[in-house]
Specification:
By secondary structure, the protein is mostly helical. The protein is built from 2 helices and no strands.
Length: about 130
């Protein structure tokens, strides 16, 4: 029941509702991104473990010569490079999830500032009338 002449309380409440809706949307975007990231992490872990088990089963230290040692070194190098690529992909997924949530909130902040400027301008106009 508190009324200030020239001040549109409903418009302010509408703006606050939009702010909350934007936060909910940002949280949904972040959650979806993190869920995707978690699935990728599990897949990478499972793939890495399967590759490691496969190589351990085929490795026979009693038959190690220069050629097989080089082959084992090449396999280790390839596994390391693949792990680095997977880590980069996971980092990019996390960055995308964060960027998506940030864009939603940032856009709403800009809209909210414009709405507040308009409310203040309208209140000032009404007070002068």
């Amino acid at each position: 029941n508190f009324k200030v002449p020239g001040f549109d309380a409903e418009a302010l409440m509408g703006a606050q509702k939009k702010n909350m809706d934007a936060l909910v949307e940002a949280n949904k975007a972040a959650a979806a991104g993190y869920q995707d990231l978690f699935k990728k992490q599990v897949a990478v872990f499972e793939e890495t473990m399967a590759e490691a088990q496969k190589h351990l089963k085929s490795f026979d230290a009693t038959k190690l010569d220069a050629d097989s040692a080089k082959a084992q070194a090449d396999l280790a190098k390839a596994a390391f490079e693949k792990a680095l690529a997977n880590m980069q992909a996971l980092a990019e997924s996390a960055q995308k999830a964060n960027a998506s949530a940030y864009e939603i909130v940032s856009a709403r902040i800009q809209e909210s500032l414009a709405e507040l400027r308009d409310l203040a301008a309208n209140a000032t106009k009404s007070a002068k009338s």
